[in-house]
Amino acid sequence: MNKTLALIFGMLGVVSSACSQNPQQEEVDIFKTDGGKEVKLHALVHSSIRIEYGDMELYFDPVSKLGNKTIDYTSIPQADLIFVTHEHGDHYDKEAIKQLTKVGTRFITNPRCAEMQGYGLVMKNGDKEDLDSGIKVEAVPAYNITEGRTQFHPKGRDNGYILTLDGLRIYIAGDTEDIPEMAGIQDIDIAFLPCNQPYTMTPEQLIKAARVIKPKVLFPYHYGQTDVSTLPASLKEDGIDVRIRHYE
User: Fold this and answer.
1) pTM, two decimal places
2) Which of 20, 183, 223, 248 could form a disulfide with 195 if both were Cys (CB 3.0 to 4.6 A apart)?
């Protein structure tokens, strides 16, 4: 897919400071779509991402509290779309969903979380949907493959998501290792890949996955105490722009 240079070089500004209780201190990366629309990616915490796309507000795995970090969702815009990958407490938070929900908010998730929430647009691995304002989403597999760890995220239960916004393709992997299905994930502009064993990938697995997916920009996320500081240098020769944000 042919992207403008503005996507890769021109509109990649960052508002940087520590992600903490104050939502105004989020780190923000700005991109442009094929049609010149602005997409802002807000780093909230861990696996929680806010995406501004025109007048649409999208949230992925919003959680209110993780360790000593809290997010006050009543102080930022409510959601048009909320996506949840799976049921674990650092991804699925009923209170955060409640605070973000307004009239017309759509909740998109896997079968288990829809059951727990009592409603939602259910997507299973391989499902595709055309949502509001031309937004397209595909649910893709997310699971563990390392022996002794497959119970954390069993195959077929959880989702990753590929979001397409006016040609801009964003892969939000969820909790996964470097699974074989990643070979079929192509034309990705921005990828969010998790990096903390025993639950997701080691840095070495993440590097392997990045070289398979070949995103233009990569955000390691869900990394907890894992040292991800070497990843930018490790993938520099692959032409992948690795950005470390506060996704501990």
Assistant:
1) 0.91
2) 223
